[in-house]
Amino acid sequence: MTFDVVICTYNRPQEVIRLINEIKKCELTPAKIIVVDSSEKDNSDIGNADDVIYVKSAHKNQPYQRFLGSTLSQSELITFFDDDLMIRDNRIFNYLLSAFEENGVVGACTGLEYEVVDKQNGSSNDNNIPVILSKLLSIIRRISIGKRLQPGEMWLLGMDTPKNEDSPYVEYTGGGDAPTFKRGILSYLFDDFLFSLYENGLGKGEDKYFSMKALVFGKIRYINRICLLHPPVGNSHYFKNLIRYRKNSMRTRLILSLRYAGMKGIFKPFVYLHYSWFAFWTFIYDSLLLVFQPGKRNLHTLYGNLSGYFCTMYFMMVKRRSLGRDIDWQYEVEKDKQQVLETAMV
User: Fold this and answer.
1) d(Cα 114, Cα 47) in Å, to the nearest integer?
2) Within 10 A of 212 (CB to CB), how many other CB atoms are there?
3) Do the Cβ atoms of 115 and 231 come closer than 8 Å?
4) Dihedral sign from CA coordinates of 256, 261, 263, 264
């Protein structure tokens, strides 16, 4: 079974070179490594390495970059890597490919370890709070979700539980866990709405968005081995602007809910009601934190979530249909692919 690797990158040429070298040291290696680069600078020298295809993306848009990379593949399977991942187990591709020997498997992912997050910069808001309040906040969080989830299960809002040995089949991929899919279904997993969200800086959680659709075609196998290392989440650019991060998170919750509802046949009005229920309890949660731990961070969290909810409802009711109408995404893909064809002819 043949496979290619697609690496999407933005302003990290040295990390990409390191990752390519790590991939080439694995026990099984891909037919091609396809690097899709949206950096300001030209890094085309990356494509000088053997079995590496370099393509410059006209859009700083990770879902688009992934789809563009997939259209340059001729292999049966495609594995997607973020440019900041580090390979810990050189048998990673042995494990991934073995998953597809099972009947009905159309996707696979591996275990992933995160480096320790600096709590000063991380995303948690509820460190060093009284025990009673901590328990109360935990109850509020469970109430806001509205369902007790099993390992590897996903639910409305994109809520999920950790993958572990009890969940050989999962309902989502995400967080840089080397999502691998059969190439034949990829054109059905991406869509123009997803591309347009990211193009306008409104997107987040694309792994869950497209892996949900994969469940229509078959199962997603979880490889219970830590094969990859992810840098500290607190260093991510997502957390540089906390208000924007929280607003995007609230927007993404509803978008993932609608995607999930479409796959599971859930009544759309219930999705909006459930989203509002979640938002209400989120505001209670954030308000309690702000009362017991006054500070700029918790204030920004509350404001970001609150404004994110109302902006999301307005966006979905009024703006959604007009989003991205001025971009022909298939034309953009063909235009970006042309540079690869032209390079091959030189």
Assistant:
1) 29
2) 22
3) yes
4) positive
The predicted pLDDT at position 317 comes to: 83
Other CB atoms within a 10 A radius of the CB of residue 185 amount to 16
This prediction's pTM: 0.88
Q: Are strands 169-170 and 219-230 parallel, antiparallel or unpaired?
A: antiparallel
How far is 63 from 9, CA to CA, in rounded Å?
Answer: 12
Do the Cβ atoms of 56 and 72 come closer than 8 Å?
no
Residue 322's alpha-carbon distances to 252, 311, 318, 345, in angstroms, are: 18, 16, 8, 39
SS3 326: coil
Q: Which residues pair with 106 in a beta bridge?
A: none
pLDDT digits (tens, 9 = 90+) for 206-236: 899 988 899 999 999 999 999 999 887 655 5
Name 94's Cβ contacts closer than 8 Å, sequence gap at least 6. Answer: 27, 28
Nearest one of 81, 84, 76 to 105, comparing CA atoms: 76
Sequence letter at residue 138: S
298-342 pLDDT per residue, tens? 999 999 999 999 999 998 888 777 776 779 999 999 999 987 766
Query: For 123-182, how does the pLDDT look when each residue is reduced to its tens digit (9 = 90+)?
Result: 444 456 678 788 888 899 889 988 888 888 889 999 988 887 777 899 889 878 999 999
Which helix (H) or strand (E) segment holds residue 328: the answer is none
For residue 100, what are its two tokens? 């597809």
List the beta strands (DSSP E) in 149-282.
169-170, 180-182, 219-230
CA distance 336 to 195: 15
Distance CA 89, CA 102 (A): 22
